[in-house]
């Protein structure tokens, strides 16, 4: 499917890994210009079609959002879409293990990272009379879980923020939507000390290879019986960023394999 994104200018945060990297790759395949921001952008430099990408090493806790926006305007003169993928997902053992400072640190990236990018880029979109913002929230924005106390709160806040954004800027032609992935196989899962290692320990030392299968089928009983791939999330992001979704705003698209059997 083509999303008619050729020549559009897109900002992607968290572009160096996982869902953000898959999203960046798909935008480039579609012929979009991508200003790709991350703490580490080395993997963006390896993408095919990278001549249309502007990799930018940024920190969203500092002035990364402004740097992204300025780079887009300097290089391409407009901003058609903003996709906020950057995030951190620390695990906690319980309330005693998560301090107010921990909450602030997670909030700084996951929530204020989105707020800062919106503040930097949306006025330009409003001036153009058109634009799209997509923020990657999470199942955990709706499903509290003490293993992720602060992460859950940070993602609930993103859902709320994006709703307000859609209400304020809809009349100016700017759409604002969330994509809430369920478990998705990215470095958050795969890296040493990531979710696979955590679950392996929880399941009494289960083999890493079997952990994800057990988690999806037996533990969580996901409808599709598996976790997602970053490309499956990217596809929803591209749709929402494109004119194909011209009547969609204020929404939260669940791309979670049926992991939240509620509505
Ligand atoms: N993988 C999952 O199971 C899953 C599920 C639901 C939601 N999510 C969300 O999807 C998004 C992407 O996650 P992922 O799984 O691809 O993880 P990932 O770790 O592969 O990618 C996250 C990226 O964000 C970047 N980042 C972190 N802090 C930053 C900062 N201060 N400034 C700039 N960049 C920063 C990291 O460098 C990294 O490249 C996150 O918001 C995450 O919360 C992931």
Structure notes:
- By secondary structure, this protein is an alpha/beta fold.
- The protein has helices spanning 18-29, 64-76, 100-110, 112-128, 149-169, 187-190, 195-202, 208-219, 230-241, and strands at residues 9-13, 33-38, 53-57, 81-84, 131-136, 174-181, 252-255.
- The chain contains 9 helices and 7 strands.
- Strands 3-2-1-4-5-6-7 form a 7-stranded parallel beta sheet, with helices on both faces.
- Strand 5, helix 5 (149-169) and strand 6 form a beta-alpha-beta unit.
- It binds nicotinamide-adenine-dinucleotide.
- Residues 13-14, 16-20, 38-40, 58-61, 64, 85-89, 109, 136, 138, 181, 183-184, 186-188 line the site of nicotinamide-adenine-dinucleotide (NAD).
In short:
This protein has 263 residues and is an alpha/beta fold. It has helices spanning 18-29, 64-76, 100-110, 112-128, 149-169, 187-190, 195-202, 208-219, 230-241, and strands spanning 9-13, 33-38, 53-57, 81-84, 131-136, 174-181, 252-255. The mean pLDDT is 96.
Write out key terms for the chains shown:
7-stranded parallel β-sheet; 263 residues; alpha/beta; Rossmann fold; globular; binds nicotinamide-adenine-dinucleotide
Uncertain regions: pLDDT < 50 for 5+ in a row? none
Structural class: alpha/beta
Estimated helix fraction = 40-55%
Quickly name the level 1 CATH class of the largest domain: Alpha Beta
Number of spatially distinct domains: 2
| CATH-assigned fold name of the largest domain | Rossmann fold
Sum up the overall morphology in one term: globular
> Largest beta sheet: what is the strand line-up?
3-2-1-4-5-6-7
- Percent of residues in beta strands: 5-15%
The end-to-end distance, rounded to whole angstroms, is 29 Å
Number of helical elements: 9
Biggest beta sheet summary: 7 strands, parallel
């Amino acid at each position: 499917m083509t999303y008619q994104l050729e020549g559009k200018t897109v900002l992607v945060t968290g572009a160096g890994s996982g869902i953000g990297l898959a999203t960046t790759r798909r935008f480039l395949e579609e012929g979009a210009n991508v200003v790709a921001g991350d703490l580490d952008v080395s993997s963006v430099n390896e993408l095919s079609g990278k001549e249309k990408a502007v990799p930018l090493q940024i920190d969203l806790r500092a002035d990364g959002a402004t740097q992204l926006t300025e780079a887009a305007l300097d290089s391409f003169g407009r901003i058609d879409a903003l996709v906020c993928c950057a995030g951190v997902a620390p695990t906690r053992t319980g309330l005693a293990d998560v301090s107010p400072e921990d909450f602030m640190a997670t909030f700084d990236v996951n929530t204020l990272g989105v707020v800062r990018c919106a503040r930097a880029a949306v006025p330009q979109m409003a001036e153009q009379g058109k634009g799209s913002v997509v923020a990657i929230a999470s199942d955990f924005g709706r499903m509290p879980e003490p293993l992720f106390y602060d992460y859950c709160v940070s993602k609930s806040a993103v859902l709320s923020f994006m709703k307000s954004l859609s209400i304020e800027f809809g009349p100016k032609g700017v759409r604002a939507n969330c994509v809430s992935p369920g478990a998705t196989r990215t470095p958050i899962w795969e890296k040493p000390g990531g979710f696979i290692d955590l679950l392996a320990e929880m399941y009494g030392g289960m083999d890493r290879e079997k952990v994800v299968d057990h988690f999806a089928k037996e533990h969580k009983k996901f409808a599709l019986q598996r976790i997602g791939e970053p490309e499956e999330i990217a596809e929803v992001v591209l749709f929402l960023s494109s004119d194909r979704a011209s009547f969609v705003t204020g929404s939260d698209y669940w791309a979670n394999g049926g992991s939240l059997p509620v509505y």
